[in-house]
């Protein structure tokens, strides 16, 4: 049964809003039990089922779980079997056996969307990552190219949470908590264990996926910024309950478990949840709602100022994976090199581009493409950008960066790269050339006390 446009929410008001709330939703009024979670007999004859996103004993401020009230429980299925044919390009435990390391700056051109029918699951492939879903610490970065909807099947990721960044083509995402419509420019988070199906109403589709093992995304602390700014909790949207009750012979659950896919048959849709409540939920966010902060006098801010969501490690301030964006915004700094500075980072940075261009690269970094600058690998603006910036001098005035949305997945772990990504025909082998032309501007006589017109000591006081 093909889903229809009218099945999916089109307005923000069709969702619940908030981040980390204890939500509740009923597709039929009176379906949620009152005063307890697991009554002897649930209203409407539903089964009560809890899904845990954290250990039962996790501290209350971190604890995540939801109660689902469904027509039949998830357990009603035949045994899991290895999926045939095997999916060869998903990794959840990065090691020398399945991936390699390379400190070189790597850039990929946008990967073509295949002509042959390919759904989200078959079109998903790991690019790089570190750690292990088995040990509940690590991450994987995937991409997908697909052109057809998943049919009579649902996907379940037992390994970690997916943060999906569609670059081309909308996603119609059906989950056990309800339906979401996710367009390029929005992101959707599908937490570990939730079953979901992805339809592609626009056909050919492409995007990026970050997966985190053993933790969940949270909003970054704002520190001295104050109580407001960056991504606002009210702008995160959570679906409302909707359910299917029809018989679905031959329905398949595809479970990603330790990076391998398994299938199990059942005769009903897993999207049979009539009501639910809890704080462990799928959600989406429109990146255009981000409220960027920036320098208003001198110097380019560190990219962490644009963090939308962060998946923490146990070390304060050290992210397993940050999701950072580079949205349209004003650049106003005086006598400042405004593009991102040259740097080497103890963290590793994977970048993608949803649309437009990126301020530090005049050419070659294209929508749908990607780059990887690993731990301590130098990077920064290309030659053309550097020379154009210097030539512009100090009188450029305020400048608005328009029509762009780049993003970064940044991790404290050192990524290993999958062989199909490293050997891909989409690797831009000339990437290094963008910096080779950087020439020496060194002049031992041009001190700040002589004639460096970019130095205004009165501003420094
Ligand atoms: Fe960087």
Automatic annotation (TrEMBL):
Homogentisate 1,2-dioxygenase C-terminal domain residues: 288-442
Domain Homogentisate 1,2-dioxygenase N-terminal: 15-287
Signal peptide positions (record): none
Active site: 300
Listed Pfam families: HgmA_C (PF04209), HgmA_N (PF20510)
Residues that, per the record, bind homogentisate: 358, 379
Keywords, comma-separated and alphabetical: Dioxygenase, Iron, Metal-binding, Oxidoreductase, Phenylalanine catabolism, Tyrosine catabolism
Residue positions binding Fe cation: 343, 349, 379
Family listed: Belongs to the homogentisate dioxygenase family.
Alphabetical list of NCBIfam families matching this protein: hmgA (TIGR01015)
Protein name in UniProt: Homogentisate 1,2-dioxygenase
Biological classification of the source: Eukaryota, Viridiplantae, Streptophyta, Embryophyta, Tracheophyta
């Amino acid at each position: 049964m093909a889903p229809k446009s009218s099945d999916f929410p089109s307005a923000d008001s069709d969702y619940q809003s908030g981040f980390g709330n204890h939500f509740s939703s009923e597709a039929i009024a009176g379906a949620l039990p009152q005063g307890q979670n697991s009554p002897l007999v649930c209203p409407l004859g539903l089964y009560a089922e809890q899904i845990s996103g954290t250990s039962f004993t996790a501290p209350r401020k971190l604890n995540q779980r939801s109660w689902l009230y469904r027509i039949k429980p998830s357990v009603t299925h035949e045994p899991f079997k290895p999926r045939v044919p095997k999916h060869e390009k998903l990794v959840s435990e990065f090691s020398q056996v399945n991936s390699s390391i390379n400190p070189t700056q790597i850039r990929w051109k946008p990967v073509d969307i295949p002509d042959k029918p390919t759904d989200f699951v078959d079109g998903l492939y790991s690019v790089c990552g570190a750690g292990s879903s088995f040990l509940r610490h690590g991450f994987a970065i995937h991409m997908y190219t697909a052109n057809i909807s998943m049919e009579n099947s649902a996907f379940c990721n037992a390994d970690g949470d997916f943060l999906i960044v569609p670059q081309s083509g909308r996603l119609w995402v059906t989950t056990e908590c309800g339906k979401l419509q996710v367009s390029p420019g929005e992101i959707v988070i599908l937490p570990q264990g939730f079953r979901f199906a992805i339809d592609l109403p626009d056909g050919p589709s492409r995007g990026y996926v970050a997966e985190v093992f053993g933790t969940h995304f949270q909003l970054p602390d704002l520190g001295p910024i104050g109580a407001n700014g960056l991504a606002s909790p009210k702008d995160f949207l959570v679906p409302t309950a909707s359910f299917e009750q029809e018989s679905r012979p031959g329905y398949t659950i595809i479970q990603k478990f330790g990076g391998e896919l398994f299938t199990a048959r059942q005769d009903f849709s897993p999207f049979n949840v009539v009501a639910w409540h809890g704080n462990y939920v799928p959600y989406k966010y429109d990146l255009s709602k981000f409220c960027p902060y920036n320098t208003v006098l001198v110097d380019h801010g560190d990219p962490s100022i644009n963090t939308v969501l962060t998946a923490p490690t146990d070390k304060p301030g050290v992210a397993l994976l940050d999701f950072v964006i580079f949205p349209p915004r004003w650049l106003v700094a005086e006598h400042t090199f405004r593009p991102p500075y040259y740097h080497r980072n103890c963290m590793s940075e994977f970048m993608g581009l949803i649309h437009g261009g990126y301020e530090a690269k005049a050419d070659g970094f294209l929508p749908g493409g990607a780059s990887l600058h690993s731990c301590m690998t130098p990077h920064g603006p290309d030659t053309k950008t550097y020379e154009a910036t210097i030539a512009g001098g100090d009188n450029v005035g305020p400048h608005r960066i328009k029509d762009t949305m780049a993003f970064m997945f940044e991790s404290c772990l050192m990524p290993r790269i999958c062989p199909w990504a490293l050997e891909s025909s989409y690797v831009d082998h000339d990437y290094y050339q963008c910096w080779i032309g950087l020439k020496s501007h060194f002049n031992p006589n041009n001190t700040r006390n002589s004639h460096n017109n970019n130095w205004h000591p009165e501003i420094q006081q």
